[in-house]
Amino acid sequence: MLSNEQKQLVEKIGLMHESEGLSPAVARVLGLLLVSDKVELTFDEIRETLNLSKSATSNALNIAIKLDRVEYVTKPGDRKRYFKSRIELWREHIMDGFCKKCSWSKMFEEVLKHRTKETKDFNKAIKDFVNFLEYMGKELPKLYKEWENKTK
Amino acid sequence: MLSNEQKQLVEKIGLMHESEGLSPAVARVLGLLLVSDKVELTFDEIRETLNLSKSATSNALNIAIKLDRVEYVTKPGDRKRYFKSRIELWREHIMDGFCKKCSWSKMFEEVLKHRTKETKDFNKAIKDFVNFLEYMGKELPKLYKEWENKTK
DNA sequence: TTTTTAGTTCTCCTTTTGCAGAACTAAAAA
DNA sequence: TTTTTAGTTCTGCAAAAGGAGAACTAAAAA
């Protein structure tokens, strides 16, 4: 099903995803669905290729689906589900991740509001960070839109 | 040592950090060092305020230091270490995180190189994503420099 | 020299995570 | 109606994470 090179790539992509906090099984499923020659794979193809149990496969797929990393399609006269990567959403996921970080500014503002006013330098450093996050929170969506315009 | 409001804030900041993959103890230490009226706290002040064991405190501080989230200063004629948040580095940490994501483009290019050429649409979607990451990888440092210029 | 201080490291325990395997389910096929 | 298919859910286990407490260490103080 997979060449040795492909297997290695699945592992490598898996590690990339594990570094994001996903479990090995989910991480490998995402890897497989990027690397496999077939874009759409069935439950059992995934299970067999990755040597997972049914439960692990089921859970991994459902987690990936809930995370909007995977979807499935069905075909007339076939009751299998065909799972595939939602690669088109990845750039939104990336941007969402960025924007989530920027929204930390709220928390740091709250910190500032409750801090003693004695520690001028430290408070200033926090304020600078808040400003930075707010700046990024405004500029990143612009950047995203610019890219969208450029590519359509 | 901490007001109730401050304690709650420490927990809230803690959760924020846990969502980044840090353990509760490290997460709370980082929270405490942002919220505490004193900017510099000793080992035992941290330990007592957070109700941690010595080992947990030691490990948490060393992890935070290795992550460049915390540093310590010493004072003449005093052998305690005074730990403090490296808040000034946070915006670099944020940018590093962003740039790390953008460097995923390499991995996806490798995927593309090994993929079958049959799946045109899917490969195109990957290529689009690679382009997007590369675009961000170029524009984000610019944005950062712009902000630096604006604020100095 | 002995004692104290400021932490570090080791051992142990509890909780959580990740997965296997088996039992189960609902729809379709025979 | 019974059987097969395509999964899901439950039970249980093994490994890893997180942290407590005690033993340890190195430098400073007495």
UniProtKB/TrEMBL annotation, chains A, B:
Domain HTH marR-type positions: 21-80
Pfam families in UniProt: MarR_2
Taxonomy, superkingdom: Bacteria
Swiss-Prot/TrEMBL keywords: DNA-binding, Transcription, Transcription regulation
Protein name: MarR family transcriptional regulator
Organism, scientific name: Fulvivirga kasyanovii
